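ARCHIVE CARD
CATEGORY: sequence design from structure
SOURCE FIELD: tokenized fold
FIELD CONTENT:
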């Protein structure tokens, strides 16, 4: 059976199954709109998991189904695509285009790796730190695509490191995927899941989080999880060699070939510093509401403005993942539909019963673990955060906890995609290099997911709640 026929059958049977779901008898607590909304959510989940249609089109279809069933008017649903939070993602794409044009993204990665010497454990750490740092500012996929060739180039310096049979190769490439997913948590620009969480907190609670509000909570988690992932990989896949002769020299040679920073590259760094200032200005200056989004629009314009910017629109436009904006909009529409029809409230009430006697640490750990493991099924950080952040907010209100902080915790947990190559683009990109098998990522991923949930829960309990 060819792929098109298979996908068509998935679409037909999923839609039929969703329709049958609306005909089943549900407890009275579920309104008919709630049942319909759950059916739409099932369609979205299956389509996201199977990718029978592109995930961005799945998001658009959710908006369409909500309009056709009277859950959310089409104008409101499409309005979510123009959500202010997409301005942050847009600015991130523009900045990434500027870094790529002048090869600064690769220079930054090489500088971090070059500081680690030739010891294999330190090289793996350097690769992971560089990937994580880049992922805080550009897309996880882009940071992976930049760092993977550097890692492969280093490993090819030694003929004994063979793809598919080397622990060093496994640790290095799996480490890049893990670091990309972890680094994206660090800032609102790092991954759509972070921006989506901010949008849900604004939408559901009327609380606008600033850039530093997110960064101050997420950065400690990132700073702990990357070394944790590194150490775990060294234990699970101990490198066969202590050093790679010539690896450090290769990095230094490439840096030397790049030469000193040009005037344009310095110009990019100045604009990056300005962007960081604008994003964080509302934390120490009294600025208008929604400044994070306004600053993002200003940043986008500055980078492409003639005479001031460093990249032309025709250069940046092809590098912008336009489908992400639809994906975020569809996610917000789905979350809004689940909230307005009472589905989120019902789920939160059931969790409240389960966690009624639990303390804050246990409640946070439980929700973070459920969220992190659910990535395996949704295979999308956006879909996972869309599903669980509204539930977390509702649960926090039921338990008398701070809904903003539990929402942030759940948003971060939705980025813990450590189990399968299909879970995120960074996982798939590194898997395609051929240095590890799917079950080998799962082996280390199960341990890292459990450990990461514990770390996140402890940090949240000690520093946030």
């Amino acid at each position: 059976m060819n792929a098109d026929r298979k996908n068509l059958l998935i679409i037909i049977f999923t839609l039929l199954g969703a329709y049958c779901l609306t005909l089943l008898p549900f407890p009275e607590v579920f309104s008919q709109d709630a049942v319909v909304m759950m059916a739409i959510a099932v369609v979205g989940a299956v389509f996201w998991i199977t990718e029978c249609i592109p995930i961005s089109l799945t998001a658009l279809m959710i908006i369409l189904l909500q309009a056709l069933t009277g859950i959310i008017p089409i104008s409101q649903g499409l309005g979510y695509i123009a959500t202010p939070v997409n301005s942050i993602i847009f600015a991130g794409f523009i900045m990434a285009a500027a870094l790529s044009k002048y090869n600064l993204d690769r220079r930054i990665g090489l500088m971090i790796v070059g500081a680690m010497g030739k010891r294999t454990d330190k090289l793996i750490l350097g690769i992971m730190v560089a990937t994580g740092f880049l992922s805080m500012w550009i897309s996880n996929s882009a940071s992976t695509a930049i760092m993977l060739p550097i890692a492969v180039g280093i490993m090819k310096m030694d003929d004994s490191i063979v793809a598919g049979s080397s622990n060093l190769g496994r640790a290095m490439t799996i480490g890049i995927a893990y670091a990309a997913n972890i680094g994206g948590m660090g800032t609102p620009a790092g991954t759509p899941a972070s921006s989506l969480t901010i949008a849900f907190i604004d939408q559901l609670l009327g609380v606008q989080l600033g850039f530093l509000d997110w960064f101050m909570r997420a950065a400690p988690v990132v700073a702990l999880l990357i070394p944790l992932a590194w150490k775990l990989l060294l234990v699970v896949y101990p490198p066969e060699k202590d050093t790679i002769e010539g690896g450090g020299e290769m990095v230094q040679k490439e840096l030397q070939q790049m030469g000193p920073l040009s005037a344009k590259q310095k110009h990019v760094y100045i604009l990056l510093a300005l962007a960081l200032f604008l994003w964080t200005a509302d934390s120490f200056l009294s600025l208008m509401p929604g400044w994070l989004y306004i600053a993002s629009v200003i940043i986008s314009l500055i980078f492409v403005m003639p005479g001031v910017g460093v990249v032309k629109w025709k250069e940046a436009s092809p590098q912008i993942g336009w489908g992400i904006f639809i994906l975020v909009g569809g996610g917000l529409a789905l979350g809004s539909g689940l909230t307005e029809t009472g589905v989120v409230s019902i789920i939160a009430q059931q969790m409240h019963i389960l966690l009624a006697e639990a303390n804050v640490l246990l409640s946070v750990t439980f929700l973070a673990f459920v969220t992190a493991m659910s990535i395996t099924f949704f295979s999308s950080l956006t879909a996972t955060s869309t599903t669980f952040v509204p539930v977390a907010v509702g649960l926090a209100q039921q338990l008398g906890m701070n809904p903003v902080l539990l929402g942030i915790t759940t948003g971060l947990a939705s980025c813990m995609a450590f189990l399968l190559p299909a879970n995120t683009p960074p996982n798939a990109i590194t898997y395609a290099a051929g240095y590890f098998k799917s079950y080998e990522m799962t082996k280390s991923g199960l341990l890292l997911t459990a450990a990461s949930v514990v770390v996140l829960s402890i940090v949240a309990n000690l520093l946030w709640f």
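CARD ANNOTATION: The two ends are 53 Å apart (CA to CA). The chain has 22 helices and no strands.
SHELF: design records, drawer C
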